[in-house]
Amino acid sequence: MTQVLDVLASVCFVLACFFALVSAIGMFRFPDLLSRMHAGTKPQVVGLGLALLGLALSLRSIPVAVLLVFVAVFQGVTAPIASHMVGRASFRARQVRSDLLVVDDLTETLQGEEPRGAP
After folding, report:
1. Looking at per-residue confidence, does 72 or 87 come out higher?
2. What is the average per-residue pLDDT within 18-27?
3. Is 64 part of a structural domain of the chain?
4. pTM over cut 0.85
5. What is d(CA 62, CA 69) in angstroms, rounded to the nearest whole number?
6. At 84, is the secondary structure helix, strand, or coil?
7. Where in the sequence is the domain holding 78, given as residue range(s)?
8. In 3D, which of 36, 34, 10 has the Cα closest to residue 22?
9. Strand segments (E) across the chain
């Protein structure tokens, strides 16, 4: 049973590395800010979850596993919210390429507002 858990932990670590690589390639290759934020957030959360699962399988400790679940939940909640807020601030600062947007619901909402954010 120990060897099976070690193999599963290794598979989780390799998959986590794969998701980190996919995220890095997406950050490098995607053309605009919103696509890069998507590439930096989604695979990163999944990769971290796999790394934490691999760590829990390799350590085999209930208190550590509970702590790792809290870390995974906190990361899963905060990363998409932070990405959303950065994207919205970038949109307000007019740093988003509007020619690449498929749907643009914020332009009508922000028509009369003063642009905020870094120039």
Report:
1. 72
2. 92
3. yes
4. no
5. 11
6. helix
7. 2-109
8. 36
9. none
